[in-house]
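so im writing up the methods section and need the Adenine DNA glycosylase record in one place, dumping it here so i stop losing it
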Amino acid sequence: MSFSAQIIAWYKLHKRDLPWRKTKDPYPIWLSEIMLQQTRVAQGLPYYLAFTEAFPKVEKLAAASEEKVLKLWQGLGYYSRARNLHATAKYVSNDLNGKFPTTKKELLGLKGIGDYTASAIASFAFNEAVAVVDGNVNRVLSRYFGIDLPVNEKTGQTLIKEKANQVLDPKNPALHNQAIMEFGALQCKPKNPYCHLCPLQKDCVAFQQGKVDLLPVKIKKTKVQTRYLAYFIFQDESQQSLIQQRIGKGIWENLYEFPVLESTQKPSQQKLQQELETNYKMNISSIEKANPKPIVHLLSHRKLIADFYLVNTQEIQQKAIQKNQKLINLKDLEKFPVPVLVANFIKSYLL
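--- predicted struct ---
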């Protein structure tokens, strides 16, 4: 039995019941693939269901405000995915009359769609015979063929793609691709894979040579940097507060947060006082820390250490409001899309 036949047989017995597998419509398939980039299925599924309920068609997503899209995305992280999703929905809806391109080559022209996503949509929606290569496929093929080249470098990825196309069943590309991805997610896991029950065991180089735990090889390239965030939660006697929108390119672009002092070192009380006096000219009656311990939030390339300060004032005057800030009532905080770090604080300490 061929590699493809074995994993397809395994898949038919073990596959998870997921809504995007029950359709050939490229819109929900595209939506699921964008959401599941660097996101576990269990985490992404509720967001997928929320999006398909709010935006059942690509035209609905295109017509939505960016603020609403970001609010629904809140908590999934990598917010550029949401912004690209929205931009592509507008393009497909307005320029392509709501019709997605049908080939990998054409799909690659859409914003936010790279080689993997284009291959997945072309395969799952249009049955194009192209191999899908994601983290799960990297792991399965690295172990099966005993590939010890780094999968996150060009030479390793080129060889993986070559092998992926070699084992692809051209008559059943959609089924094959779903099967190998699911096999990597459930059977050939990163840690403690089920090698003793694996249908590929006999021909798996890593298993035969005792190298399962050593593959795939991945070179660490990102140096994690530490950043300190001191958030100021202004509140006056009428429960008015200030929030600001992140401007410029960055992972939290266009999301809202409280006014913040960012630094590479933990700011002193003197530094905090100086920031308030210099940039927020208002009569402050008291300042108190809202969170007992610093809140640590880990990103792929950042370690964020945050503290939140309640800053009480009699009145927030218009002249104290900066260009990217707005005056809101504290009870309306939940209406705005915010980074998950801020959302968790609001949930734990303000609501």
